[in-house]
Amino acid sequence: MADACARSSRPRADVRLQPITKTVPANILRFAHAAGVTSFGENKIQEAAGKRDALSDLPIRWSIVGHLQTNKAANAARFADEFHALDSMRLADALNARLARDGRTLDVYVQVNTSDEDTKFGLHPDALLPFIDTLPRFERLRPRGLMTLAAFSDDMVRVRTCFRLLRRLRDEAARRDSRIAELSMGMSGDFEMAIEEGADVVRVGQAIFGRRPTPDSHYWPGLVGA
Ligand SMILES: *Cc1c(COP(=O)(O)O)cnc(C)c1O
């Protein structure tokens, strides 16, 4: 991360590392916390809730980064501190209702499908600005920026195109709602390029915690060969 910041003349402090801990057991996360990691990112809400209960004695910031079905919104709203995959008004409504009941707020990133692959969640780029215009009505949601998963491809030009598109969309969205400020993009395989293209948050799992036993298709249905 420091190298990528230096290459792009960005202060290292401008880019936040969000460790992604899916499949990493709670007892290992205790060691991570002892080593200074204070925020854990999870893709699946049940897994996150289980770890949260197991680690309730530790002050941890929970970040939910994966697609959330509306019927699981209430569970996420109970304890999540930030959510990176907001992609529908129904979901925004369900989160907002539960947050209001609990007197909580939630930092959110709006997910955009920048790769034009139908295996991924997120709003179509054309649907983004109308969606941004609805955000003020969800008073418990604190919009922070946009999030994307780049194309799963060895073609780095294609990957970079996804990051550039998200940045351009962020610039447009920020003119409608200045709270849309950050870019959540970049994972183990592409975080350096994401930083070069302006990422403010990189979501990194395997490069920190080692290879996952589950294939990526478990998280992104429809994906083949990953
Ligand atoms: C798992 C995951 C990541 C991190 O992927 P790694 O390959 O482990 O770095 C980032 N974003 C989301 C949404 C994820 O589900």
TrEMBL record:
Q: Does the keyword Hydrolase apply?
A: no
Q: Which parts of the sequence belong to the Alanine racemase N-terminal domain?
A: 27-213
Tell me the residues on which N6-(pyridoxal phosphate)lysine occurs.
Answer: 22
Q: Which domain of life is it from?
A: Bacteria
Q: Does the keyword Membrane apply?
A: no
Q: Which SUPFAM superfamilies match?
A: PLP-binding barrel
Q: Which UniProt keywords apply?
A: Pyridoxal phosphate
The record's section on Pfam families has: Ala_racemase_N
Q: Which NCBIfam families match?
A: YggS family pyridoxal phosphate-dependent enzyme
UniProt record similarity statement:
Belongs to the pyridoxal phosphate-binding protein YggS/PROSC family.
Q: Which PANTHER family match?
A: PROLINE SYNTHETASE CO-TRANSCRIBED BACTERIAL HOMOLOG PROTEIN (PTHR10146), PYRIDOXAL PHOSPHATE HOMEOSTASIS PROTEIN (PTHR10146:SF14)
Describe its function: Pyridoxal 5'-phosphate (PLP)-binding protein, which is involved in PLP homeostasis.
The name on file for this protein is: Pyridoxal phosphate homeostasis protein
